[in-house]
Amino acid sequence: MELLAVSVFGVDRPGIVFRITEVLAEANINIVDIEQNVIQGIFTMFIVGDISGCTLSVDEIRERLERVAEEIGVHVHLSPFEKTDQKEKRRYVITVIGKDRVGIVRDVSRILYSHGVNIEKTTLTARDQLISISIEVDMRDADVEEVKRRLKEEIEQTGLDVVIQPYGIAKEEKRLIVFDMDSTLIDAEIIDELAKMAGVEDEVRELTSKAMNGEIDFETALRERVKLLEGLPVEVMEKIYDQIKLTEGAKELIESLKKAGYKVALVSGGFTYFTEKLKNELGLDYAFGNELEIKDGKLTGRIKGKVITAEEKARIIEEIARKEGIRRENIVAVGDGANDRIMIERAGLGIAFNAKDALKEVADGLISKENLIGLASILKLPSEFKKRL
C-alpha cells in the first residue's frame, strides 16, 4: 500500500469536504483514514489515501487539489509517506481539569513528554472558567503504574486536577455514580457539626481525623464519636441541615447527571437523617447512611443496625448495580477518605475528591474542592463547548 497524506485548512464553508474528496475519487485514490473538524470557524481536515491504483502522478494530484483549494478558499498540503510497523499500543485517556490560564497544554505535554508518553489526540472542553483537556496517549514501553503515580503528583503540583483511565474503560458509557456525603457532596463533616452542639468538638475532631487517614478503623471511630453525642436533642439536626452548604457545583452536576440518564446514589458513613433529606432535595435515586438511635427526643449515643463501613459501602454499590443491571465498568465512585477506598478501587472510574493521601494512591483521578463540576466534562455530559487542539 502506497500512502498519501492530504491536509486541508481554511475558513469553514459548505462544500469543502465534497470538493476535496471529489478530486481524490476521480484519481482513484481510496481514503483509508480521515478526520475533519471546525474550530472557531476554522476548517481542518486530514486524509490518508491509498494511491496504489491512482491514475495520476503525485504532482498531478497536487496541481488539481491546489486548483480546487484556490476556488474554495482553503490551503492544501500533500505528503507521500510509508506506513511504519507499530508496536501494540497501551492506550490511556488522561483528563486534566482546572481554571483556564495560559500555558496549561504546554505544562501537561511537558510532563507527558518527560515520561516518554506519546500524545495521539487532544480535545479541550470549556465550561465557564473551568476547562478540561482530554488527552489520548500511548504509554508505550513505560512502567504504567509509575507513570500514573508521577503524573498525579506532578500535575497536581501545577494546580490542576487529573484523571487517568485505560482507553477501554474511558470509552465505556457510565450509568451509575455514587457519592460520599461529608466533605464530598456537602461542604461539611456532619459529625463535627453535631459535636459542636454537644460541646465535644475537640474529642470528635481527633477521632474523625484518625479515621479519615486510616489510623483507626472507621466503625470503632464512629461508635466512639456517636457515644459522645448522647443526650443531644433531635431538633439540633434540623438546625444543622438548614445551615449546610452543598459543595460548589454539586447541584448543577447532579441535575446534568439525571438529565443524562444516570442513576445517582449517596452512600455515606454519615447519618440517615441527612442522607434522606439530601435524597429528597436533589432527587437522588438511592441514599444510605447510619441510623442514629433516638429516645424521648434525644440521641442515645448508639447506632441502630449495621454500620456502613468501607466494606459495606462496596457491598451496597454492588447491590444497586445488580438491581439496575449495571456492570462494574459503568460505575463512577466519588469520595474523600479512607472509608471510600474499597468503592473507589472497585468502580470503573474512582475519583478521590479533595482527598487524603490514602485515597489518592488508589484512585483513577484527583479532583480538588472547587472543581467538582469538572466531572461533567470527564463524563461527557451535555451543555459543553468543545474544540479540537
From TrEMBL:
Its cofactor is Mg(2+). Residues 5-79, 93-165 form the ACT domain. It is an enzyme of class 3 (hydrolase). Its EC number is 3.1.3.3. InterPro entries: ACT-like_dom_sf (IPR045865), ACT_dom (IPR002912), HAD-like_SerB (IPR050582), HAD-like_sf (IPR036412), HAD_sf (IPR023214), PSP (IPR004469). SUPFAM superfamilies: ACT-like (SSF55021), HAD-like (SSF56784). GO terms for cellular component: cytoplasm. Belongs to the HAD-like hydrolase superfamily. SerB family. This is phosphoserine phosphatase. It comes from Geoglobus ahangari.
